[in-house]
Design brief:
The chain is α+β, with helices and mostly antiparallel strands. The protein has 2 domains: about 130 residues, no CATH class; about 70 residues. Helix content is about 35%, strand content about 25%. The strands form 2 sheets. It has a 4-stranded antiparallel beta sheet with strand order 4-3-6-7. A 3-stranded antiparallel beta sheet has the order 1-2-5. β6 and β7 form a beta hairpin. α3 crosses α5. The termini are far apart. The mean pLDDT is about 90.
Length: about 210
């Protein structure tokens, strides 16, 4: 078998930070034959902890089609975005069970809602390569808008002359938001994008911008 890279992502901190977790794991001859080789795991896959990796990048393509390349072999970048704040990239300190990349706006710019594509790539000194392409739907900004609208509902419900049209609009937006999450989970890109645009237009019309 060969190394098969896997990752998962989490957008957090008010839509300004993206945490990418390397979930590849350590090679195990029984349970994880495509994991990282380590000094103690055995196997013949690319080794994560022996200073043998010569090229490693994460390339993120935002919804506008702009590529953002993160050079993981740059020591300053490595120390800034991984838990390994005082060592060189991919040396003996690296544990495949504890490898995350935390990217903030200084690396990504504005983390816009939409479909992002992430390509995780490594190459060792023997020329062995591994690549994983990961597509992720982000909607943190829309979530902020929707929840901000929900907070206002009591103002239009507990009142002398309530505005039912406003409440109806918020309920519709809430339903669209639930549909957006389902589209994201089911990997229906076109449907996700259509619903996202509808929600963005609705938020603009309601005067909210997160």
């Amino acid at each position: 078998m060969a190394l098969i890279l896997t990752i998962n992502t989490l957008q957090q901190t008010s839509c300004t930070e993206l945490v990418i977790t390397d979930s590849t794991g350590e090679f195990n001859a029984v349970s994880n034959t495509t994991g990282w080789q380590t000094a103690t795991s055995g196997g013949t896959n690319i080794q994560i902890d022996d200073d043998d990796i010569e090229e490693a990048t994460i390339t993120l393509t935002n919804p506008a089609g702009t590529d953002i390349v993160i050079d993981l072999m740059d020591t300053t970048t490595w120390q800034a975005i991984t838990p390994y704040t005082a060592v060189l990239p991919f040396t003996s300190t690296v544990d495949p069970a504890a490898l995350t990349y935390t990217l903030n706006e200084s690396y990504l710019g504005t983390i816009t809602d939409g479909i992002w594509t992430l390509v995780y790539y490594v190459k060792d000194k023997s020329g062995n390569e591994a690549t994983s392409t990961f597509t992720q739907a982000f909607f943190c900004n829309i979530k902020c808008c929707v929840y901000s609208l929900l907070v206002t509902v009591p103002d239009y419900y507990n009142c002398q002359s309530c505005d039912n049209k406003y409440i109806d609009a918020v309920v519709t937006i809430w339903g669209l938001y639930q549909s957006l999450k389902i589209a994201a989970c089911s990997a229906t890109t076109d449907r996700f994008n259509d619903i996202l645009v509808a929600l963005q237009n609705a938020c603009d019309a309601m005067g909210l911008d997160c």
